[in-house]
Specification:
By secondary structure, this protein is α/β, with parallel strands linked by helices. About 45% of the residues lie in helices and about 20% in strands. InterPro entries: CHASE4, P-loop_NTPase.
C-alpha cells in the first residue's frame, strides 16, 4: 500500500515537473518569437527611414535635373552649342544643388557641355558613357543610377531636354542633361550617422583603407558635433592592412560579435570595412551603406 502511494506521488511529481518544464519552454519560445518580431519590426522601420534618407539626400540632384530640362534657353544652348550660356547658368548653381559634375548631350548623344565643381578636378575630363544612361532615357524621360567613376562611387540623375511649354515631356527630346554627386567620405558618414538614435548594426563598405579610416573619423566628428558619445568599442575598422593578431582580436569585440550573432546592441554600432570584410564573412547587419 505504501509503495502504491509512493509511486503515485512520484508520478504526480513527475507530471507536475514535466508540465512546469513544458510551460517554461513554451514561454521561452514565445518570448524569443516576440523579441524577434519586435526586432524585425524595428529593422523594417529603420530600413524605411533609410530609404527616405536616400530620397532626401538625392532630392537636390533630382530637382536640378528636372528644373533645367524643360527650358527654352537650354534647348537653344544645346542646338547652338553655346557653352558660354552653360558656363553662366550651370556653374554658379553647382553648390546650390550639391552637384559635383554636369554633362549635357545633344539629341544624337554627342557631348555638348561638361563641367565639374571646384575640387573635383578628377572628373573634369571624364565623359559619362552613353551605355550608362541610354537604356533608361530611351524608354523614359528620367534616369537614376550609381556607377564607379574615376573619383569614386557616384550617384547620377538625368532627364531629357524639352521646351518650356512641355513640362510633361511629350515632345521628342532636344538633348540630355545629367548631374552627378560623389558618395565621398562626408556623404557616407552622414548616411551611417542617420541611424545613431537606433540600436542598429551598421556596415559601411568602401574601396580603400585610407577612405575607411577617413569615414571612421567623419562618423566620430558627427557624433561630437551632435554632442553624443560614441565609445571606441562601438566603431571598428576592418581592412586588409591590419595585422593578423589585430584581426583576431577584432572578432572578440562587441561590434563583430553582434554582427556575427545577430544580437541587438544597446546602442548603434559601426563596422567600416574594405572588401576584406566581405570575403568569408557572414555578417548580419541591420543597415549597409
Amino acid at each position: 500500500m505504501r509503495l502504491k502511494v509512493r509511486c503515485r506521488l512520484i508520478l504526480l511529481f513527475a507530471f507536475v515537473s514535466a508540465g512546469t518544464l513544458a510551460g517554461l519552454l513554451a514561454f521561452q519560445r514565445g518570448e524569443r518569437r516576440r523579441i524577434r518580431s519586435l526586432f524585425a519590426r524595428r529593422v523594417a522601420e529603420e530600413s524605411a527611414v533609410f530609404e527616405r534618407l536616400l530620397v532626401l539626400y538625392g532630392h537636390s540632384l533630382e530637382t536640378f535635373a528636372y528644373d533645367y530640362t524643360y527650358w527654352d534657353e537650354m534647348v537653344r544652348a544645346i542646338a547652338r552649342s553655346d557653352t558660354g550660356w552653360a558656363n553662366e547658368n550651370v556653374v554658379p548653381v553647382l553648390g546650390t544643388y550639391k552637384a559635383d559634375v554636369v554633362w549635357a548631350f545633344r539629341p544624337d548623344r554627342v557631348l555638348f557641355y561638361q563641367t565639374a565643381a571646384e575640387g573635383r578636378e578628377a572628373l573634369a575630363g571624364f565623359v559619362l558613357p552613353e551605355s550608362l544612361f541610354r537604356p533608361q532615357l530611351d524608354t523614359g524621360r528620367f534616369c537614376h543610377f550609381f556607377f564607379e567613376s574615376p573619383a569614386g562611387l557616384m550617384e547620377v540623375r538625368g532627364a531629357t531636354v524639352h521646351p518650356s511649354n512641355d513640362p510633361e515631356r511629350k515632345t521628342p527630346p532636344q538633348g540630355y542633361f545629367l548631374v552627378g554627386r560623389l558618395w565621398d567620405t562626408a556623404h557616407l558618414a552622414e548616411l551611417a550617422f542617420a541611424h545613431h538614435q537606433a540600436q542598429a548594426r551598421v556596415i559601411v563598405y568602401v574601396q580603400t583603407p585610407d577612405l575607411a579610416k577617413a569615414v571612421v573619423e567623419a562618423i566620430r566628428a558627427l557624433y561630437k558635433k551632435a554632442q553624443r558619445e560614441l565609445p571606441n568599442d562601438r566603431i571598428e575598422l576592418l581592412t586588409g592592412t591590419i595585422r593578423g593578431s589585430e584581426r583576431d582580436d577584432l572578432i572578440n569585440r562587441p561590434v563583430l560579435q553582434h554582427l556575427l550573432t545577430s544580437e541587438p546592441p544597446d546602442q548603434t554600432e559601426y563596422l567600416v570595412s574594405t572588401s576584406a570584410g566581405e570575403v568569408g564573412a557572414d555578417f548580419d547587419a541591420t543597415h549597409m551603406v
